[in-house]
Amino acid sequence: MMRTENHPTWLLPSGFEDILPARTEALEHCRRNLLDRYALWGYRQVTPPLVEHLESLLTGSGADLDLQTWKLLDQDSGRLVGLRSDMTPQMARIDAQTSASGEIRRLAYAGTVLRARPDLLGGSRAPFQVGAELFGVAGPEGDLEVLSLMVESLRHCKVPNLLLDIGHVSIPQALADAAGLATTQRNDLLRHVERKAWPDVRHWLQIHGAGQSLCTDFDALSRLQGDHDVLSRARQQLGHHPAIGKALDDLHFVWEALRLRYPDLDIQCDLSEIRGHLYHTGLLFSLFGPQRGEALARGGRYDDIGAAFGRRRPATGFSLDLKPLLRDLPESRRSQHIWAPAGSDQALWKAIAEQRQQGHVVAQDLLMGELPDEAQLKNRGFDALLEHSSAGWVLRFLDAR
Fold it and tell me: Where in this chain does the record put each Class II Histidinyl-tRNA synthetase (HisRS)-like catalytic core domain (predicted)?
């Protein structure tokens, strides 16, 4: 058993932190504004539970979320439950349970998720996740809407010089399918591709007797990263695979539309990217800010996840963690801060209530102390005070004489 005598009782577990008032106000301001913006696009907010049965939370994700999910025993049912590490599976469950056949459904969410391990060294194990999911649209038009909303989310958070990286899991998957492999071998090959371990990919193809044509295709795939001309090169080198031709059409459609909507947005692609290939089924996208090694927002298409809940539905979406963005969040509009003296005088109470109804912050002195001087009040962040006069309780600004 671990000894804890030397650990202060106030010390939080690694990866958890208190968010103090100033940062909490900034986070809440941006959370509310993002959800309001999503609502203008038709995305309605839902609030799923923090805990669900484990098999529901891990649907479609395989080991991707399994290692990140805290597991508990539900003493009521005796079943294993998990603390959500990502809200997307919950959105798919809600859509499958509540949407009508053929309905286009737009859902938004915001809340804390819990991770067994941080995504980055020294990172948070309790990200504050905000996102939007679109169900019922199978074509690239749905991906374009979600991508546009993701770009506008980070622009709203005042992140400059955004870089969008896009890919399509169908491209590496089509090459693996062309090898005619059993499921286990196919997944083994794709794991090498996911790690970008190209020497291992070439070695794997050789020892499994892949033909020269397929080896050439994978070699071409390893070099298909960069600007828009990558799509033309991919069509020349890999377009003989029908599934790849369709994926390139989708990428071209999205890319051209985004260039018109956001001319200053830098876009690049990596056609070998298959992050989460056991989960995603189409376009993948990540949005980066300046001097940030990790993506600030991620998303993609995941059409198969609803099948586990009884309804396979086209689905695409994105999510972001607000915590790393706190330093970039716009300052919320500050209300007037008013100091009021101690006392239970009814007229004073009415004056305080009137100021609060107008949206001003009123902090009443409860210690019956002497009136602080104006310099002290200013240092404590007050803009005005309530003082008694012949006309009753009136507001006086601290700079006024």
Answer: 15-325
The Cα 205–Cα 191 span in angstroms is 13
Name residues whose C-beta falls within 8 Å of residue 198's C-beta, 6 or more positions apart in sequence. 218, 219, 222
Contacts of 266 (CB under 8 A, 6+ apart): 161, 162, 163, 164
CB atoms within 10 A of CB 260: 7
Q: Where is 84: in which H helix or E strand?
A: none
Nearest Cα to 37, choosing from 132, 125, 122, 124?
A: 132
346 class by beta-carbon count within 10 Å (0-12 exposed, 13-18 middle, 19+ buried): exposed
The predicted-structure confidence for 261-300, as pLDDT tens digits, reads as follows 999 999 999 999 988 777 788 999 999 998 767 899 999 9
Q: Which tokens go with 312?
A: 């396979």
Distance, in Å, from the CA atom of 338 to the CA atom of 58, rounded to the nearest integer, reads 50
Residue whose structure tokens are 């199978």:
138
What does the alpha-carbon distance between residue 182 and residue 177 come to, in Å, rounded to a whole number? Answer: 9
Model-level pTM? 0.87
192 within 8 A of 201, measured Cβ to Cβ: yes
What distance in Å separates the CA atoms of residue 315 and residue 91, rounded to the nearest whole number?
A: 10
